[in-house]
What does this fold into?
Amino acid sequence: MELIPPHTKIDFVGNRYYAYVFTAVMILLSLAAIPIKGGLQLGIDFSGGVTIQIRFNKPVETAQVREALQPLSEALVVQKFQMAGEEFLVKTDVPEQGAEGIGDKAKELLEKSIGKGSVEIRGIEMVGPKVGKDLRDSGIWATVIALAFLLIYMASRFTFIMGLSAVFCLVHDLCVLYGFFAWTGKEFNLTILAAALTVIGYDINDTIVVCDRVRENVKFSKKIPLLDVLNNAINQTLSRTLLTSVGTLLVVVSLLIFGTTVLQDLAWALLIGIVFGTYSSIFVAMPVVLVFDRWLPMKRG
It folds into this structure.
């Protein structure tokens, strides 16, 4: 199936300076979240703490739950499950006296404020600060190692500059994803980390398809300027790239509309990753190859 007509000649690389500006702005906006927003709001998986799942048998407002549980801790986050009736997720740090009996204490406070017999504690989960730090460090190392192995793979299969270009695109996509979660204040947890690693695999696949076509075109186009070779490769794979992205986005948007809160956060991560991954594979990867080619010229013919 051809979404884009054959022999399309869109000058993507020729208009690379617009992409440079847009990419630089997105990266700067993402990094600006560090001093302005204080970075990511880490979930209990990474920061440590206690999560209490609570259900009520009558309508309750989020503010009521937060006010009732204020004696537990000053650092209190209360979230309502949008599609689960009167069900809430309460997150707090571990009390000084420990997490033992915290469920009973929470139930006592809620019944005192909202009504006796109206509260059901459905689950309690605790992650210690050390475990959270270990998970956070493991997540960072998993991302770094994934990028390193992808660089090695791309350099061995194609060329070193294509490997650098692919890794630059992935760093750009992860940076935008980081900025989105930092600016929106959405929780970054193990589920979102898994989505980020999934995005790395998805995005590199798009870039590999374009690089593979560049490698084939370069063999028979020794006298054609590299800019035209790169443009031809993008145009020849454009239909495949857009069809894959649109098909995947249909599923992700469905999760965003009909999913629970946890699935919606996952869907947001995938949505941002796919949209900007598609953008970077079309508008960023090959222009970066052209820049690196000045210092490490690609073998032609």
The beta strands are 41-42, 49-56, 76-80, 87-92, 119-127, 187-188. The CA atoms of residues 159 and 250 lie 34 Å apart.
